[in-house]
Request: fold
Amino acid sequence: MKKHAKRAFGVFHDGLMVRMVELFREGTQVHLQAFDHTELDRYWYKIHDDPSVSVVDTKTKEDLAPIKSDMDLDDFDAGYVENYQLQSSDRMFAAFNLSQGVIAMNVYEENIARDSLGAVSKKDIAQFVKMKVGQKYIRSGEWQSSIVSIGGQDQHWVYSGTNRLFEVLKDYQRQNRMRLYYQLADANDIALTDYFKSVYAEELQGEALLVYLGQEYRKAFVFRDGVWTDTLKLQITQDIPEMDTICSKISLAIDSAQITEPGTIICCGDYVTPDLIEFMKTQFNAGRIEILRFSNVIISMEESESFEPSRLSQYTIAIALAYKALFPDDQNFTNSNFLPSTIMEAQKEFKIAWHGFLVMFLTFGVTMISTMAIMKSNQSYRQAKATKQELDFTLAQKRIEATEIQKIRTDLENQEKNIDILRTILAGKNPWTEILNTGNKTFAKNPTSWLLNLKQDKETFILAGVTTRRDNIVRFANEFTNSKIQKVVAFKVRNQTIWQFEISADLPKIDWIGSIQKDIEQLRALQQHFGEDTSTPEIKPKSELKHTKVKPASPSQTVTTAKTDKQGRVLLPPIQQANCPVPTDYLSSGDGEDVKDYRIFVTSINKGNIWEYRDKGVKFMNNHADSPLIPAVRWWLSYRLYLDKELQLGTQYLEPLLRTSDSYYPYALLLQARIDYLSGSRRYEEIYKQLRYEFGRHAIADQVNSDWSLITGEGAK
Reply:
């Protein structure tokens, strides 16, 4: 395909008429140099040659000759195929210097097969071609396909069969020993709509209707805001249609398509005259009805009658084909060409030097691959060097942490020695603590109940009380070992029934050693998490304390030993310090009131008082509602409540952090997963799965994997 052609010849065949124009391009201007036409004596596409041909009217020149019989008509084909080109067409071609430009022609409308809208995948195209194109045309290469956009949807068009106009041009080329260049073979619909959009590009607002009235080719095209949306066939069978017939068929097509009457109607073709335009203005309500104008073509001819729009309108498609051939790279034109691939390949230039391009591309490819390999190797080396530096720094930090851990281990051993002394003293002592704790919880769960007396009788104890609900007595009895309800008496006080009861039960045997061991484990976990030191802390000056980083401590090593509670759930170790959210140095080392209160809050977090840190945290959120430290306070408050087994309250403080997507979100997800696991909710599985896939490279990834391995039993020893 020539991209910068200066001259183009458009050849258009319709019924018994062949029209031809010559366009010359000078920069961005296009000049109409000449146009001509010739009338054929007979149709090129006979019914017995191509069953898909549509007969518009039987009144043709060949009908004037008497037909002997149907058998004579069938026998005519053999001699006609070789001599169907007529001398009149040769005379028309001779009037143009075809070798000085490129040739653009139309294809026969009935030889185009159209697939359904949207079926443009490679598989759909292959199936449609196999179904519509015969093996004869596939072997000869007489077929071609294009993708056309109609109403914003792509459609696959396939042309197959003999193009008689193309055959006539090739015969003329052979007879005159000329070298012709075939640029384009396009469908009437595509060439006409592309040219219409190029002429009226800035005026197509709303709905417009383009009407073409040819000898056989008669269609209307619907445009909406400059986009071709639909094609309407005009069922006009008269050879020379009357004006009222044309208008009625256009109205019928509009009604059948169920569209509103367009505001603009543009007409072109063989039978478009000024009288028809005036008649249409009386039949349609469109605000604009006119003959297609050629504003992008300069007429360079001297004949005055050539300037009449109605005469130029007969050459619309021929002009459209030539104009498209001059601008093959125009993005506004549909990229379609139904020339056989063998013709386009044979016309390519520099075919002999294809191996040179192949060597050049191979050279560039090898160079590019080698360069990319070297760059990738250098990048890997730099990454390995950076990783080594990080590992060296981490090793130094781990050694410092190991020293601190050894110091904590020594302190714990001293504490365990002191507790061993208490084990021998408390063995078998004081069962009343367990009785009072159990009774306190039971009476708290069942209000309007009161304890009257509690006494010991050898190895049992007797509990006396009153309640307003009889079923509470059974609940009290179920809380103690080997309990028996000794007495239940009902009496009324101010119309209220009161139940007095006595319950006897065995004195509980307290495993003080196990309880102390449990307390030791909790103490060890808290000390590892909060970094408490048994030695007396050094008192620093206020000026030095002012710039101390606020950073609650936590254990620095991963715990993989799985311990379970009474329900069989694994007791997860405290979260490591590296996996806890810490405010930035700018926020936590400032001089504002919120930073000072934050230090006080963190100090209370590190203490064993279960009420002090709650009071400090609530006061901070009330007094500094807009502080950037609020998320950190909420997280640490929720985490301490989680350690104290206040799961519901911890969830309430953590919930606002789960509705945001800031830096605290992954830490909040990790803590919520632990709370759900400890509370028995199965939601923890979904949260841990989300953490492992969405935050696989986050700082908390090691903690998430450690928790999950303990829960699933992969890390248990």
Notes: The longest helix spans residues 354-426. The longest strand covers residues 29-39. The mean pLDDT is 82. The radius of gyration is 48 Å.
